[in-house]
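Sample intake — Syntaxin N-terminal domain-containing protein
Collected from: Brassica carinata
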Amino acid sequence: MNDLMTKSFLSYVELKKDSEQDVEKGEEKLSCFLGDIETIKTLTEEISHLLLELQNLNEETKSTHSAKILRGLRDRMESNVVMIALHPTIS
C-alpha cells in the first residue's frame, strides 16, 4: 500500500514539475510575441508617417508650376517610396 502511494505521489510531483516548465515556456513565447507586436506597431507608425508625407507632397505638386520645385518634390516622393520599400520587416 505504501508503495502505491509513493508512486502516485512521485507521479504527481513529476506532473506538476512538467506543467510548471510548460508555463515558463509559454511565458517566454508570450513575451516574444508581445515584443513582435511592439515592433510591428512601430513599423506601422513609421510607414503611416511616410504615406502621409507622400500624400502631402502629391497635393503640393498639384499647386506648383515651377519645374525646379516639381523636380524637388518628385525626388522627395521617390525617396519616401524607396524608404518604404526598403523598410525592415519582421521575421
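Post-analysis note: Helices lie at 2-63, 67-85.
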